[in-house]
Amino acid sequence: MRGGPSRAAGNPKYCYEWVFVKPREFVVLNLWHDMFEEQENGKICINLNSRKYAEEVSGVVKHRATKGDEAFQLAVKDKLPIRVIVITGRRRSRPTEKASHVEARLLDPISWRITKYDWQTGDCTITRGEEKFVDQFSIPEDTGGKPERRNVSGTAFVRNHFVRTNVLIRAQGKCEWCNETGFKMADGKIYLETHHVVPLGETGLDTESNVAALCPNHHREAHHGIKRDDMRKILLKKLADLYRR
Ligand SMILES: [Zn+2]
Ligand SMILES: [Zn+2]
Questions:
Q1: What is the pTM of this model?
Q2: Which of 3, 54, 147, 234 is the most buried (most CB within 10 A)?
């Protein structure tokens, strides 16, 4: 079955010519420079949906688009960095047009990462630059104490990853209990621990309004301290205030 070229052209976000996966290490994407978008915070990102695009095209282009979506899923699951080869030149707007004209290909020295992936639809956002903030689950060999989400898998795991990342970005490296900056790791990143204020096992939700970024000391205290019930109430109030319109 052939996809109509007009529908394909309706998705100008077709953005890569080729994708290359080095399992457990990185994904390389070729991206056209005109795909880049600047976010309000000054970060560069691209938004695309390879899965949707694959449904609209046929042949080798379909194959590539499908491979692209598979690569994004792998990058999300294995937290792989994305290396981007930036293509400049004239890009064809639909597969039936004559081939694109590539002027230059440059390997971006900065690595990218997937900052949003919708498992249901395939909508994907890839952002330029490293994560500056990490938590206990970013360190593969270290669970940072009590694992709160060891049994979370599949879609829930992916969602959880983005919730944690967004909470760490919200906290900007400062404990949301004491406001002190987390310690700096050997690789320069700032460490805090993410904590479900109401535990998942107690009907707590895996959402940003139920997850706090805490320094290791206050994280332990939130679980085991004599004040833990008060801490829970105060943290919940603080988070509720943050998300109140
Ligand atoms: Zn603290
Ligand atoms: Zn916790």
A1: 0.59
A2: 54
Residue 229 alpha carbon to ligand 2 centre in Å: 13
Coarse DSSP helix, strand, coil percentages of the chain, rounded to the nearest 5 percent: 35, 25, 40
Which amino acid appears at position 17 of this protein?
Answer: E
Within 8 A by CB and 6+ apart from 84, the residues are: 28, 29, 30, 31, 107, 108, 111, 112, 128
Q: Which residue has the tokens 């976010």?
A: 39
Q: Would you state the pLDDT for residue 17?
A: 55
Distance 203 CA to ligand 1 centre (A): 25
Name the 3-class secondary structure at 55.
Answer: helix
Residue 174 Cα to ligand 1 midpoint, Å, equals: 8
Task: In whole angstroms, give the CA distance from residue 87 to residue 109.
Answer: 14
pLDDT digits (tens, 9 = 90+) for 8-59: 333 444 445 578 999 889 999 988 888 888 877 677 889 999 999 999 988 8
